[in-house]
Amino acid sequence: MRQNWPERLWLVRHGQSQGNVAREAADEAGLAMIDIEMRDVDVPLSELGFRQAEAAGRWFASLPENERPEVILSSPYIRARQTAEAICKAGALAGGPARSIVDERLREREFGVFDRLTTIGIREKFPEEAAHRTRLGKFYHRAPGGESWADVILRLRSMLNTINLHYSDRRVLVVCHQVVVLCMRYILEELDEAQILAIDKQADVLNCGICAFEFEPDAEGLCTPKLSLWNHDSPLEGEGAAKTSAPDAMAGSR
Asked: What's the fold here for domain 8-239?
C-alpha cells in the first residue's frame, strides 16, 4: 500500500516562454521594465519552448507503456498548457484520453505590484518594499497584491491532497512553473526554508527539466516520497533542443 500516494509523480517546468526571453533581454539591457504587454497568464511558449516541450513529450512516450504517465495535470497559464498539450500530442500518456487537466492551484506565483519589473525596476519603483524583502527573505516576503513562497505552498498542500484522493497508485505528470516545482519539493521532502533556498540558489529549474518522485513502501510499510530525478535534461540533450533555465518571466524577484 502506498498510503494513497501516486505510484510516481513527475514535475515538469514549462518550456521557455516569450516572457523568459523578454526578461532576459531586459536584464541584459539594465532596464526597469520587462517589454511584454500581455498578462502573465497569457504569455505563450517561445519557438524554442515548443521544441523543448515536444522533446520532453517524446521522452515520456519512449518509456514502456507501464511506466508512462496516466494523468497530466497542468497550470492554467498558457505556457504550461501549451507544454502539456505538446507532451500529450507526442503520445506520452499510457492509455486514456490524450488531454491535460487544468488546475488553478498549479499556477505561477502571483507577483502583485512587482509584475513586469526587473530587479532594478523593483528597487527603483518600490525601494522600501525591496528593502523589506531583503530583510524578510523571499520565502516569506509577499509583494503587495502578490504571493510569497509560503502562500504558494499552502495551495500546493491542497493540490497534493487532491492528487492523493483522485490519483492514488497512478502515474501522474504535473506541468507547472519554477517556484511551484521547488515548493513541491519543499512539501514532499519535508524541507525547511534554508534547505529549499539552498537548492534554488544552486541553479534555476530547467525549462522542461524533469523532476520525479517514487512512493514505494519501505521495510516497515511506510511510504515516504523519494526523489529519483532532479532537473533531468536528457530529453533535451537527446533531441538537440537547447537547454534554458531563465528565472520566471514577469518579475525580478522570482
From this structure: Rossmann fold (3.40.50)
C-alpha distance from residue 156 to each of 103, 149, 173, 174, 244 (Å)? 11, 10, 15, 12, 25
45-81 residue pLDDT tens:
999 999 999 999 999 999 999 999 999 999 999 999 9
Domain boundaries, the chain: 8-239
Cell of 195: 534547505
**pTM attached to this predicted model:** 0.93
